[in-house]
Structures are given as structure tokens and as C-alpha cells.
Amino acid sequence: MTQLIAVTNEKGGVAKTTTVLSLGGALVEAGYEVLLVDLDAQANLTLGLGITPAKVRRSVADVLLNSASVLSISRETPIPGLDLLPSNADMGLAERFLSIRQNYELLLKNALSGLTSYDYILVDCPPSLGAVTINAMTAANLILIPTQPEYFSVHGLRGVLAAIRRIRSQHNPDVNYRVLITMMDRRNRIHHNMSEQLRATFGEGVFQTVIETDTKLRESTVIGLPITHFFSRSRSAIQYRALAQELTQNVQET
Amino acid sequence: MTQLIAVTNEKGGVAKTTTVLSLGGALVEAGYEVLLVDLDAQANLTLGLGITPAKVRRSVADVLLNSASVLSISRETPIPGLDLLPSNADMGLAERFLSIRQNYELLLKNALSGLTSYDYILVDCPPSLGAVTINAMTAANLILIPTQPEYFSVHGLRGVLAAIRRIRSQHNPDVNYRVLITMMDRRNRIHHNMSEQLRATFGEGVFQTVIETDTKLRESTVIGLPITHFFSRSRSAIQYRALAQELTQNVQET
Ligand SMILES: Nc1ncnc2c1ncn2[C@@H]1O[C@H](COP(=O)(O)OP(=O)(O)OP(=O)(O)O)[C@@H](O)[C@H]1O
Ligand SMILES: Nc1ncnc2c1ncn2[C@@H]1O[C@H](COP(=O)(O)OP(=O)(O)OP(=O)(O)O)[C@@H](O)[C@H]1O
Ligand SMILES: [Mg+2]
Ligand SMILES: [Mg+2]
């Protein structure tokens, strides 16, 4: 049964795209068939796989706005078993014009419903809680919320959880969520305190796995490969593999 | 003559809010009268000044959506000479519903036009190029673009510059822009290479002042004060003062 995971947080720069790229790489290494979906007009996920967004003629925006089929836009990536639905600047139009349609929240879920050959579909969201992110949350089995252990990030969880409550009451009552601590600097006192606070507040709702800062991740985005396939023995590759293992063992109720 | 500076970048987590807070503190220290405007539904600028967004009943959203007067929502902050137009979650509604109005781009410019007693108005934008950010760019004399010297951030400038070209051709032909390098780690090779690339591409269009990583900035957000008033001798307080000086001396053509 295909598991769809929406990776989202209204807070910017918390490693949403990096998590989709790296977790995707780790899941493929573990033998799963994986589809990545780029819902951000910035198209960083597309860029992070070595594809120039300006050269993408048909993107996920065509699927959402013009009912293009998913298969007509999907691409293979340099990694066998890892496919991509790319984004481009048109996604900005989707953000502005989707919400005036009736039942716009279900567009992504319906478009992806036939893709039963994938074990996991990972969706990268923009830093907002607008129409595009709502689509991803409505289609999701799990909402994975990357969070830096910093004041603005932790405060921002409130808005994301309010959106999840709305989604549960409308179209997706069974969706779970889990928080992933990212870009953690173990020597930093604020990071330590905020991580403790997150575990105290969310308990099982926080992944055991923590992703620490690792400058190799910055290098992998320039090269256009997930960290698992760029620098296999790096700290972040090892940590994202641990995340993939934790995820595949138990997508828990929260 | 009041100078309005919109601090914006579609890329998330590049220190837009931190720059508005810190630069605001530095300008007030130098004797200027300053108004900060929070246009982000996350309301991090409001939070960073010690105000709980959930308790803000009337925000900038009321000004944009319901023609509330600016004076009816403006607040003093703990810092004399530094006032704030706060945000709250209603700003999400502004992002969704503004763009269907005729000439929506001019709403902020018109609302702020009577505030001649301020020397500087600094506007914090959400990580997007939607209707709210377009309002800020249209009202601005200068668009300040904080950018981390990393691949996704530098690539994202393309989208911001395209938006500036559109704004110049429509309602604001004289607006300038300048890039500010933020969260720089001088020991990091990628940061060094990307900074060189930015200077080679933009020349004078990049501030001389660079803001380096400084964990004291993280602590100041928790306390609710700009870094200049929280830890006056810290590296980032000194660098944001240098930025204020560079800004007040020459808001150059780019
Ligand atoms: N663990 C890490 N260690 C060091 N750098 C990291 C780490 N994770 C991500 N980064 C870097 O931090 C920056 C922010 O990450 P990323 O772009 O993935 O965040 P995002 O949440 O997708 O941002 P946005 O809100 O703009 O979509 C990127 O330049 C990325 O390379
Ligand atoms: N120079 C710096 N050194 C260390 N940390 C910093 C620095 N500048 C900002 N930060 C921290 O990095 C995080 C991101 O900064 P900030 O929230 O200001 O970015 P932003 O661009 O406003 O994000 P968003 O796109 O979500 O609005 C914050 O937790 C902030 O405290
Ligand atoms: Mg991203
Ligand atoms: Mg911000």
C-alpha cells in the first residue's frame, strides 16, 4: 500500500527539501520504489536533482491547474528507483488560483491515486500553509514536520498543527503527523533546550532520529544528488538512513 | 523623507525577520525614528519583540483587508523610537484574498503614505512572492534581499529579480534593490565560493557588510529584543550597526 508523506512546515529554511531528497535516497537504497513530488515554486527539489527548473515545460502545476496526467510529467532521476514530478515557476500560479475552485483540496490526492507501483511518495511543500500545502496534507498518510530547534521554528508548529486539525475535520481524518528535529548543533545550548522542549511537548510525536548540521549536505545540493548517493559515509547520510528505518518500521498514530 | 525598505526573499530561513529586528535596533540607536511592519502570518517579527501573536486582535491584515487605519493598530515596543505594526494569523487571509481586488498592489503604499514622522519603515515579508510581498515591493524605496551563501538561496534570487522587474514596469519604476549576505560561516568553503559568486554577479548590488553566523542572535529572539539591545558587543550587533551605517550613507542605484 503506497504511503504518501507530505513534508511541510510554514517556517522557512528548516530542511524540508533536504529531507525529501535525503530520505528519498535512503528509501531507494533500502529497496523501495519512491516518487518525489516538488510542490514549491522555488523548485529546489527539482534543482537538487540536477534539473534546471527554467527548462521544465510541464510541471505539477499542470496537473493541479490543467488536469494534466501525472505520467505525462514524471521523470526518472540519476538514481534508479527514484522518480520525480518536477516543479517550475508556474507553481506560483497554482498557489494563487487553486483556492477558488470547488473541492480544490482533493486535486493532488485524486491525481496521485493511481500510482500504486510506488512504495513511498514524498511531497516537498513550500514554506506556507496555502492552497498547495493544503493539497499535500489532504493527500497524505503522514505529515512529516522538519523543525530546527530554534525559537521561531518551534513557535511556528502551532500554525501547522492548527492546519492539521482542520484537514482532519474535513477530508483526511486518519492523517498522522510527526516532528523531525533538523539542523541540530549538539554544542548549542538553545538547540539542546528547544529539543528537550519538543520531546516534552510531543513525546512519541517526535522522531527518535535527529538530523545534525552537516556541511556535506550543502555540497550535495550543488552536485544534484541526495547525500546518500553523494557522500555515503557522511553523518547526515547515516542519520537519514536511520530515519528511513524508523519510518518504515512504524508510521505511528499521533 | 521617509525611506521604506522591504526585506524580502522567496527562499525561507535566510534571516529576513532577524535583519528587520536587528537593523531596526541599529537605526534607532543611531537616532532615527523607525517603524517595523510585520507582513508574515508566522508573525515572527511580532514574536521577536516579545508580543504574543495570538493576543494581537487587530493586525496589518485589517489595514490591507478592511481599510483599518495604521494608527489604530500601531504599537510601541520596549525600545524608545521603535514602533511596530504587528501581525497575526489573519495575514494568511490577506495572502489568499488580496489578489482578486483591483489595484491590490497599492494598498500598503497608500496605507503608509501619511506616516511622515518616521525616518525609516522596515517591512518583514513572508517567504513567498505572493500578493502580500508584492504590496511591500510596490511601496518600497529599497528592496533588501537577505541571502545565505548557499546553492538554493543564490538560485532563488532569479525569482525575486523577475518580480522586481515586474514591479518596476508596473507601479514602482524607481525602486532599487541590494543583496545582503547573511548567516555566513567564514570557515565554510561553499559559503566562501558562493559569496564570491554573488559579488561577481551583482557588484555594487551587494552590501559591503556581511552578517556572519552568531548564536547570540538565536538567544535574542527568545528574549524579545533586537540583538543591539540584548548583547550590544556581540559580533552580529556590530555587523548590523555597520549595515545601518552603510545604508544611511548611500541607498544606491542598482
Ligand atoms: N543538516 C543540515 N546541515 C547543514 N545544512 C543543512 C542541513 N539541512 C539543510 N541544510 C541547508 O540549509 C538550507 C535550508 O535547507 P532547505 O532548503 O532544505 O530548507 P527548506 O525548509 O526546504 O527551505 P524553504 O522553506 O525555502 O523551502 C539549505 O541551503 C540546505 O542545504
Ligand atoms: N547570523 C545568524 N547567525 C545565527 N543564526 C541566525 C542568524 N540570522 C538568523 N539566525 C537564526 O536562523 C533562523 C532563521 O532566521 P529568520 O527566521 O530570521 O529567517 P527568515 O528569512 O525570516 O525565515 P522565514 O523565511 O521563515 O520568514 C532563526 O532561528 C534565527 O534566529
Ligand atoms: Mg524547500
Ligand atoms: Mg521571517
Gist of the model:
Two copies of one chain form a homodimer. Chain A is built from twelve helices and eight strands.
Account of the 3D structure:
With about 250 residues, chain A is α/β, with parallel strands linked by helices. Helix content of chain A is about 45%, strand content about 15%. Chain A has twelve helices and eight strands. In chain A, strands 3-4-2-5-1-6-7-8 form an eight-stranded mixed sheet, with helices on both faces. In chain A, helix 1 crosses helix 12 and helix 3 runs parallel beside helix 5. The mean pLDDT of chain A is about 95. The interface of A and B includes residues 92, 148, 155 and 190 of A. One magnesium ion binds next to helix 1 of chain B.
Q: Largest contact between protein chains?
A: A-B, 40 and 40 residues
Structural class of chain A: alpha/beta
Distance between the termini of chain A: 20 Å
Q: Please state the CA-atom Rg of chain A, rounded to the nearest Å.
A: 17 Å
The mean pLDDT of chain A is: 95
Helix count of chain A, per DSSP?
Answer: 12
Oligomer: homodimer
Q: Which strand order do you get reading across the main beta sheet of chain A?
A: 3-4-2-5-1-6-7-8
Query: What characterizes the major β-sheet of chain A?
Result: 8 strands, mixed
Using DSSP, what is the number of strands of chain A?
Answer: 8
Unique ligands: adenosine-5'-triphosphate, magnesium ion
Name the poorly predicted regions of chain A: none
What is the N-to-C order of secondary-structure elements of chain A (H for helix, E for strand)? EHEHHHEEHHEHEHEHEHHH
Strand content of chain A: 15-25%
Tell me the helix content of chain A.
40-55%
What would you call the shape of chain A?
globular
